[in-house]
Amino acid sequence: MELRIAQRSTEGTTMQLRRTIAGIAAGVVTCTAGVILGPTTAHAAELGDRSLAAVLTSDGNRFDRNWYDYDIVTEAVLAVLAAKPDSPVKLLTDGSVPLTAFIPNDRAFQVLVHDLSGKRYSSEKTVFNKLVAAVGVDAVESVLLYHVVPGATIVAKDALKADGAKLATALPGASITVDVKSKWLKLIVLKDQDPNDLNPLINPLAFDINKGNKQVAHGIVLVLRPLDL
Hints:
By secondary structure, the chain is α+β, with helices and mostly antiparallel strands. The chain contains 7 helices and 7 strands. It has helices at residues 41-44, 52-56, 71-83, 106-117, 124-135, 137-146, 156-159, and strands at residues 29-30, 99-104, 148-150, 166-168, 175-182, 187-191, 215-220. The strands form 2 sheets. A 4-stranded antiparallel sheet has the order 1-4-5-6, with no helix packed on it. It has a 3-stranded mixed sheet with strand order 3-2-7. The longest helix is centred in the middle third of the chain and has 13 residues, at 71-83.
């Protein structure tokens, strides 16, 4: 699948998230006792190979006026791959690699840019451009990797049994913790490494994007932050 996007400006360093991106290690999920996340090897062989990149770009990945889809995160993935073709973010284009991604909706990025700049922008394209200009492609790469759990296809039914599980992400040394608030209402909060921000909630209506494939995603309402912003 061909991914094309013009490289955006990377001026500014208001967020210090630049880290060396090492190789992705196996065995990335640490769980509470008795919790199993992801399919067994036999079951994994039955899953499809459609990638999350294919799903995210299937609508033409155009900015629009719907703040509750995933145009900004899609453009962020494309921007990183345009600037850094060998980035680990490329895992999202290879559907044969099992992973779980937590993808922030466009409103989540509007909130993040407001937190960083003190200004609320009314255009998805402006929010995206302000984000990249403010923090740079390397930082955007780190944020994206923090939303990816490689090596495990975690569907909703498994996530709802995983209260207290710590998930190692594709950003080396960074993890998120699963906090199941209600199995019945399917309410799950993801605790990130920023102690001062609000933690994202998985949208109960946006579980299991790309279900039936090795790569699945769950929509979240805020951006996960790997350190204090």
